[in-house]
Design goal:
- The chain is of the alpha/beta class.
- It is built from 8 helices and 8 strands.
- The protein has helices spanning about 35-50, 75-85, 105-115, 130-135, 140-155, 175-185, 205-210, 220-235, and strands at about 10-15, 15, 30, 60-65, 90-100, 120-125, 160-165, 190-195.
- The protein has a 6-stranded parallel β-sheet. A two-stranded parallel ribbon has the order 2-3.
- Helix 2 (about 75-85) links the parallel strand 4 and strand 5 (about 90-100).
Length: about 240
């Protein structure tokens, strides 16, 4: 009998951002200049070292996370994807996701990533309210968030996803529900709604330690989760 071969997913980290968000504890840094080709070279060298550890195992997905992978030149993303496909047998229905932040994205850039082989974009919307976006340290406004989602869909990316943060200070559950529904109605295929968490080692973490960060009421956070879950279920989304 032939041995079963377990499939796996590939994660490619891109650590560069335009700015570091105050809640972010990922391995990322603000960089005025991104070494596009040099970083791709480093990823390919690591791939050469790791590929022999996964002989003949099919890869079901690739995820470019960060950081802000949409800052990366599409040509370098294409180089990495080509090398991954040469190293591993990919399933035909494999998912290739790239995280995109506003300020490092537009319709033409989205189309270039699609041509490079990206078939799913995950857009860091986080909120559709300007006041909330300022609190979160985001570089975009609500209008730009809506435009980015619409632009990704218009660029022909097969699947567009959006991130939404709930559980913000003084945020009523109805607001969280309304934002989730608006994103759903823009045409996203997937929505990641997650609670704001305060992590040590972040700017928010330090402010919270000093008692200088406003925090959400836990009851409202729970109600927001339930409201979002119910609303998206009504739009055909499955949790």
């Amino acid at each position: 009998l032939a041995a079963m071969v377990e499939p796996f997913g590939v994660y490619v980290h891109f650590p560069y951002c335009l700015s570091k968000c105050p809640y972010c504890d990922f391995a990322s840094r603000a960089a005025p200049v991104v070494p596009h080709e040099r970083y791709a070279d480093a990823v390919l060298r690591e791939l050469d070292l790791r590929a022999p550890d996964f002989p003949a195992r099919p890869a079901t997905s690739v995820f470019f996370g960060g950081g802000t992978p949409s800052l990366w030149d599409a040509a370098q993303v294409a180089r990495v994807l080509k090398a991954l496909r040469a190293a591993y047998p990919f399933t035909d229905d494999g998912d290739c996701t790239l995280e995109a932040n506003l300020g490092a994205s537009d319709e033409a850039r989205f189309a270039a990533f699609r041509e490079a082989g990206v078939n799913r974009l995950s857009i860091g919307v986080q909120s559709l309210t300007d006041e909330r976006l300022r609190f979160l340290g985001r570089l975009h406004d609500a209008r730009g968030a809506r435009a980015a989602v619409s632009g990704a869909i218009a660029a022909g990316v097969p699947r567009v996803s959006a991130d939404l943060i709930f559980g913000l200070p003084d945020q009523p559950p109805e607001e969280a529900r309304r934002e989730a529904l608006e994103l759903a109605d823009l045409g996203v295929a997937h929505l990641s709604a997650y609670q704001l968490t305060i992590e040590p080692g972040t700017r928010f973490g330090e402010l919270a330690r000093r008692g200088r960060l406003p925090l959400a009421d836990e009851g409202h956070v729970a109600e927001s989760f339930l409201a979002i879950d119910e609303a998206l279920g009504q739009r055909g989304f499955r949790h």
